[in-house]
Specification:
The complex is a heterodimer of chains A (about 325) and B (about 250).
Chain A (H helix, E strand, L loop, with lengths): L5 E10 L2 E11 L4 E5 L6 H8 L7 E6 L2 E2 L4 H5 L2 E4 L11 H11 L7 H11 L15 H13 L5 E5 L7 H15 L3 E6 L2 H7 L2 E6 L2 E7 H8 E9 L5 H5 L4 E6 L4 E6 L6 H10 L4 E8 L2 H13 L7
Parallel strand pairs in A: 3-8, 3-9, 6-7, 7-8
Antiparallel strand pairs in A: 1-2, 1-4, 4-5, 9-10, 11-13, 11-14, 12-13
Chain B lengths: L1 H13 L1 H32 L8 H25 L1 H8 L3 H5 L5 H28 L9 H28 L3 H17 L12 H7 L1 H9 L5 H27 L1
Helix pairs in contact in B: 1-6, 2-3, 2-6, 3-6, 3-7, 3-8, 4-7, 4-8, 6-7, 6-11, 7-8, 7-10, 7-11, 10-11
Classes of the chains: A alpha/beta (about 325), B mainly alpha (about 250).
Chain lengths: ~325, ~250
Amino acid sequence: MTQPLLSAQGLSHSYGSQLAVDNVSFEIARGEVLGFLGPNGAGKSTTMKMLSGNLAPAQGEIIINGYDLIDNPKQAKAHIGYLPEQPPLYKELSVQEFLNFCAQINQIPRSKIKAAVANAIDRCGLTAVNRRLIGNLSKGYQQRVGIAQAIIHSPAVVILDEPTSGLDPIQIREIRHLIREIANEHSVILSTHILPEVQTLCDRVQIINQGQLRFNDTLESLSLQMHSASILIELLAPPAINVIQQLHGVTSVSSLSKTQFRLHYQPDNNPTDILLNMAVSQQWQLQQLTPEQHSLEDIFMKIIQHEQQPDGQAA
Amino acid sequence: MFTLARLELYRLFLSPLAWVILASSQLILAYLFLTHIDYFVQIQAKISAIPGAPGVTELIAIPLLNNAATIMLLIAPLITMRLIAEERRNDSLPLLISAPLTVQQIVLGKFIGTFFFFIILLTLIILMPLSLLVGSDIDIYLLAGGFLGLSLLAASFTAIGLFFSSLTKQPTIAAITTFACLFLLWIIDWAGSENMVEQTSLFSWLSLVHHFEPMLQGDIATSDISYYLIIISTFILLTIRHLDSERIN
């Protein structure tokens, strides 16, 4: 693999005696959308703050585009755009003035500022409101201004901390659409506790809980995990339950109604083929056969709960 | 850095606060200016015969600048309180911190922007004695010395206010602590200044007024200027240190 755009190694940070982030390491490649998933208080925001240079990690290092964030903060910060949970806005400025100022502090050359501001306004759909005061805009538009501020200097990595929190469903859809568009040009790190958001937006998922990284893989391999070892079938003329039980690979059968059954099987021994053959030859009148899938939510809960078990008595 | 300074000044003038402060301080000082003129007109006839008697500048302009210093002491906390505390309360500080700026640039930018506001205020004030040029001779050099003293005083106020604003999230607390600190530095040389001359030398050295008054009399000493520069740089450095250490904790 080529050199990662952003790499974080062994990040730790604690607030007083409480360890908020514990030895978290990850990387992000160019053009990737990384979802940072975790329940509230898991350490997502703390990690984001460290990545954006707002919080110095107690341990560990962050390299952005070859620059160490601690040793060369200026160069490293030029390559990131950051939208905190609360969009950092000067409410008494108009959208245009504010973005102009952001362009200046991000050291965009004077001759290119106008184009950069126009581009950000256009991409974030702010054209209609660009002369209005930020304080008078709706939360959704304020969030867009926050995103515009993060992408104005075309950073390599855009860090978005819960970009859709507190928005109504329509606004959420619009912001997601915007994020997907941004992902065409920038790498994006996105933190959220909303699971479908990860499913629709991200290439790779990291699950963090109690300050530790529990899972770090592509979305595909996450969906592989989502296949569970069970099938739901409906037979209009079912045989005795132990006939199904004895099919090769079936570990247990539970009947849900007179005609519906749930079959559990060993993961490598899928009995679907045998079942189909039997159903045809024995005339069980198969009506339905559905391989059951875990939702991302189940996986998420499984990963989180699995890790919580050892210290379960404390909880 | 200058971008930040410009923005700071611009935002100040977007809020009514700056306008109200400029207008009301101008009103008060204009009234005082008129009373000084009135007084001067009354005694003019009596003192004109005395050789080496104080002139227009000493009797009108200098007392006015002295009053201006007191008024600045009162308004400085109100102007500086929002500098960092309000950014923190509005969660807008990350915008500056995650931009490719050093903490030094952020702090200096805010300092310069606010200092420039005071320069505007002082320019408006100094216009009043300058208007006397129409009808009389005034000592421009003496006035310039007073202006320099006031500017240094304003810069010290700004630096102290900036530091207290960086300590808290509540602008009001920043204002109160700044005012307390400024007032203490203002009156510190009152402490037994009559009998214990030896012990109070440190206190009077610390006093903001002690270094300001000679300048009003046209006595510009390097030691006074360096006192202000020390105060300014100390508080700016403290602010930078504090904001830096905040990222670690």
